[in-house]
Here is the input.
Amino acid sequence: MKKIILFNLIFCIVVVIVAFNYFNIKSRSAVVFNYVGDYMETNYGVDRENIILVENNYRRGMGLFEIEVKDVVTETYYFYEVDIRDDYSLYYIRDLSELHRKNKADQEG
Here is the structure.
């Protein structure tokens, strides 16, 4: 009987930790997309309504987000690397769009 109670307790703790990490990453992804939208409005003049999320990768070991968004009006892709703190404040945002365009041009030509 004690083994069943102990197993249930350990199982519940594992489920809570996994659920916390999952929803923490999902909420961080939403915050990162918001920061990228603000950055694009400020620096590129692209309306927030005209961008869609193409891909959002969380690099676990580094704690960084690699995000790819697309401007639906001009069909242009933008790539960013974003790091946020534990309190969801922006640590830095790096625009990698030109680097991706250059690499793509080098591969094609």
Notes: The two ends are 69 Å apart (CA to CA). The first helix runs from residue 2 to 43. The longest strand covers residues 51-59.
